[in-house]
């Protein structure tokens, strides 16, 4: 939430990303099946920009960033600035192992010296109500789509899912141009690389994992093909090898 201290400071947002071992979270909760996410788009999505990854686990760098932002630790490692403790409210949806991820995020941020409260929203309606009140510092959300234009509701200032509250006219322009102003795939890729760069520069997200849907199938099954989002098989095309 870029509209509420302390996450209105990009140094704090960066620290909260670098201070989390995202690879360890993925291994712990999802096993070896899910890749660690490296940006606002999955690695298989058109528009993914590998040059804009969020780096690895760097707790020392995170501590230095918090120091530079004025959040100093006491003798017990708890951080405060001008007498105010570093307090964070983390909101997790109740689906897709988000509560478990939230617990590990809270633990990592507490290790940095923050006081963290984790709340689990019991469904999308309550999650949306919490967002509308704006009283959170980080909130979990994901969606699916086959086109990178799904970024627009999340990062355009007037987008329905712009729950970070971030406003950047240049980012809005990139999103609009990519969605409407170009039919060239190469041009769109360049525009979305610019979008990913701005998201990364401002540390607007903490990417955790690329969502994976595991499917088991017999080797005798022929013609197994899935929809563009990867969720649904085209059953009418299936046949069995004998």
Blueprint of the fold:
Layout (H helix, E strand, L loop, with lengths): L9 H9 L3 H9 L28 H10 L3 E2 L5 E3 L2 E2 L1 E7 L4 H14 L3 E7 L2 H10 L4 E2 L12 H4 L13 H12 L4 H18 L18 E2 L16 E2 L2
Parallel strand pairs: 4-5, 4-6
Antiparallel strand pairs: 1-2, 2-3, 7-8
Helix pairs in contact: 1-3, 7-8
Give a quick precis of the structure:
With 242 residues, the protein is α/β, with parallel strands linked by helices. Helix content is 36%, strand content 11%. The strands form three sheets. A three-stranded antiparallel sheet has the order 1-2-3, with no helix packed on it. A three-stranded parallel sheet has the order 5-4-6.
Shape: globular
Strand order of the largest sheet: 1-2-3
Low-confidence stretches: none
Portion in beta strands = 5-15%
Largest sheet, described in full? Answer: 3 strands, antiparallel
Number of helices: 8
Distance between the termini: 57 Å
Query: Rg, please?
Result: 20 Å
């Amino acid at each position: 939430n870029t509209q509420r201290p302390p996450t209105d400071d990009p140094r704090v947002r960066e620290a909260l990303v670098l201070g989390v071992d995202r690879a360890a979270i993925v291994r712990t909760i999802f096993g070896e099946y899910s890749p660690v996410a490296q940006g606002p788009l999955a690695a298989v999505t058109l528009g993914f920009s590998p040059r804009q990854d969020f780096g690895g686990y760097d707790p020392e760098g995170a501590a230095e960033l918090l120091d530079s932002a004025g959040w100093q630790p006491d003798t017990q490692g708890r951080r405060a600035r001008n007498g105010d403790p570093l307090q964070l409210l983390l909101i997790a949806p109740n689906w897709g192992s988000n509560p478990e991820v939230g617990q590990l995020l809270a633990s990592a941020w507490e290790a940095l010296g923050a006081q963290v409260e984790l709340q689990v929203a019991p469904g999308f309606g309550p999650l949306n109500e919490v967002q509308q009140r704006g009283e959170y510092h980080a909130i979990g959300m994901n969606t699916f789509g086959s086109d990178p234009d799904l970024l627009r509701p999340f990062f355009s200032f007037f987008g329905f899912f712009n729950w970070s509250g971030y406003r950047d006219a240049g980012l809005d322009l990139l999103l609009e141009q990519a969605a409407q102003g170009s039919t060239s795939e190469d041009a769109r890729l360049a525009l979305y690389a610019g979008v990913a760069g701005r998201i990364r520069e401002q540390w607007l997200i903490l990417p955790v994992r690329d969502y994976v849907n595991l499917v088991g199938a017999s080797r005798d099954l022929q013609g197994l093909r899935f929809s563009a989002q990867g969720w649904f098989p085209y059953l009418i095309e299936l046949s069995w090898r004998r």
